[in-house]
Amino acid sequence: MASEIVTRFAPSPTGYLHIGGARTALFNWLFARGRGGKFLLRIEDTDRARSTPEATAAILKGLDWLGLDHDGEVVSQAAGADRHAEVAHQLLEKGAAYKCFSTQEEIEAFREAARSEGRSTLFQSPWRDADPVTHPDAPYVIRLKTPLDGTTVIRDAVQGDVSIGNDQLDDMVLLRSDGTPVYMLAVVVDDHDMGVTHVIRGDDHLNNAARQMGIYTAMGWDVPVWAHIPLIHGPDGKKLSKRHGAVGLEEYQTMGYPAAGMRNYLARLGWSHGDDEVFTDAQAQEWFDLSGIGKSPARLDFKKLENICGQQIAMADDAALLHEIAQFRAAVGDPPLTAGQADGLGRAMYCLKDRAKTIPELLEKAHFILAETPIFPDEKAAKALDPVSRSILAALTPHLQNATWSRDELERVTTQVAEAHETKFGKLAGPMRAALAGRAVTPSVFDMMLVLGRDETLSRLGRAAEFESG
């Protein structure tokens, strides 16, 4: 087996990228990246009727948003049909496969008889050991010869050793009567040709591994390391479906969860490293291993997702967050940020990141930067601008005109003016929030003043002092 680690993600382009698929991709990416290996992407588009270019584009877009870069070109499984068929014919020549001329009617009749006699309905082809001389001039499929007795042992890095009796496995079809290869053959040939060393995928494929091993063995190829990961369940412990809410990755993006938070949360969904809940990409790549994957299904927990996303936003690099905001706005159809808005956000990021669990929450805190001027307070904020508060704001303005624009000085001047009007700064904070942001919930008024600068702050306070409700 090659010394370099090679993993792959191989989705079918029949719909959006499911969150379970996204986690599978992440596990493959982490395992390869943490070991200096390769992470490959293959689109399993052999089902021509259901595969669509739109679905392929959605998958690529989802992986791009999640930040999972792949090595080399994207491989189309359908494009390798000739190579897959070639391997089926090689197996035929080796005597590891055979031509089966049984018709669908004959196969169904066999199963009917087996059912009525209480026998296994796995089809036993009369052509398995037939002399080629007796072969008719008729359509045929090529079937793999599965051992009739003994067991196939799947050595799985997650599930442990899983034994399946060979009498439970049929002689699976490799090539249909029209000469097209089946998916089960294509997967094995592609994984071998792409040099895949570790197959990390959902445990709904566990039984497939036993059947696929027959092809590896017959061709004399190295069997990859199997790692079948449990599926994701909803909070109620049932298989994840639309009734649990979002299941497509793009829905999580449009709800405003940051990509770094999704990576962190999905990594923790079914895998653990001690008690570590929040970690960087570098730590995830360093720590991730197959032994840390649990055997039982993971449960989706939106509270935990929000908590992790909040912590990831707080520790994020400002430039990365600005990029994330731009991607979010594009995803939900909002106009791009203007240069001024992006500049203001960059300067304000230090006071926006804390306690924002999603991008929309962060943008709501940034309303004082993003809103068009003049600022119009919303209904709740407007209540703070009563005549007394407005008169204090009017008195505050000239004091700020000559203040040094530092936090300490702004706090000192504002507190002094409040006391002169026989009130506390706390009573003045509400009217100032309404004046500077038009909202009742905002970052600290001093942070807003520092970000906005002297001229804009004074302009907004002056306008609010003249505000007439209704």
What would CATH call the architecture of the largest domain? Answer: 3-Layer(aba) Sandwich
The proportion of residues forming helix, as a percent range, comes to: 40-55%
Beta-strand share of residues: 5-15%
CATH class of the largest domain: Alpha Beta
CATH third-tier fold name of the largest domain: Rossmann fold
Helix and strand content put the structural class at mainly alpha
The tally of helices reads 19
The multimeric state of the shown protein is single chain
Low-confidence stretches: none
Q: Terminal Cα separation, in Å?
A: 77 Å
Count of all domains: 4
Note the main sheet. Answer: 3 strands, parallel
Major sheet strand order: 1-2-3
Radius of gyration: 31 Å
* The CATH H-level homologous superfamily of the largest domain: HUPs
Query: Can you give the mean pLDDT?
Result: 95
Count of β-strands: 12
3D architecture notes:
By secondary structure, the protein is mainly alpha-helical. It has 4 domains: 6-70 and 232-303, HUPs (Rossmann fold), CATH 3.40.50; 79-229, Rossmann fold, CATH 3.40.50.620; 316-370; 379-465, Arc Repressor Mutant, subunit A, CATH 1.10.10. The chain is 48% helix and 10% strand. The protein is built from 19 helices and 12 strands. The chain has helices at residues 19-33, 53-66, 81-94, 104-116, 183-193, 206-219, 249-254, 259-268, 281-287, 302-315, 318-332, 339-352, 359-365, 367-370, 379-382, 387-401, 407-420, 425-437, 445-465; strands spanning 6-9, 38-43, 75-76, 97-100, 141-144, 151-156, 160-165, 173-175, 198-202, 225-229, 232-233, 298-299. The strands form 5 sheets. It has a 3-stranded parallel β-sheet with strand order 1-2-3. A hairpin with a 3-residue loop joins strand 6 and strand 7 (160-165). Helix 18 crosses helix 19. The protein is elongated, with a radius of gyration of 31 Å. The model has no long low-confidence stretch (mean pLDDT 95).
